[in-house]
Write a structure and sequence with these properties.
Blueprint (H helix, E strand, L loop, with lengths): L7 H9 L3 H19 L5 H9 L5 H14 L4 H20 L13 H23 L1 H9 L5 H10 L3 H28 L15 H10 L27
Length: 239
Amino acid sequence: MTSSVLTRWLRQGLRYGICPLCRAHHKLDREYIWGFFDQWSMQDTAVEQFAAARGFCAEHAEQLCRIEVGAMRTTIGITDVYLATVERLLEDLAALRPDAGVLTQERCPACVYRDKGVADNVRYLLGELAGDSDFREQLAAGSGLCVAHFRQAWDAAQTPEQRAQLTVVQHVVAQRLAGELREHARKQRAEAAGEPAGPEADSWQRAIWMTAGWPAPAQAASVPEGDNPYVHHPSAEQP
């Protein structure tokens, strides 16, 4: 069984009722973006990596804006790092020749950080599935894994036993969700008018999240998350 320190984000995901690896994904994004804003954007090595990647990808640029522009009401840091990025771009463009060369671009450093962390958490999850029956039961009783993270865990599994454990858990979750979707569809028809909604009422939303991944909390990384940052996500509101 893996250390509880290493699996804390996975267990938070179970507690919040979302894909545990989506939770790790979101926390890694928050950790990196806050670290970049608060410290790394003032370090030469980090700024060089940022410039070599031509800045952040669109997703992580938006997260940085949420902290600096939205929460902190400033653009000083963003201006500095993007000035360095554009100056690097100008240097590289000046070095290009029509008959040779290519404009290189490294991966977004926030994506690199997150992807490595998620891969680590996939290993932790496989270890918990193999060694902790309570973890398996909680995962099966909750939302399981989103499809993308199920595929990642499947590919990372080292033994047929690990893949069997993953499949059993995911099948239980998908079968229960399918039943709730059928019940929700039945209650939308005229003949079921007046029947009270039950736990199936948000099954359509959970089906989207299982197939597309759970959306990140709306708060900027500079804002404390609270007891459950996923409760009041706008897309969870019922029509």
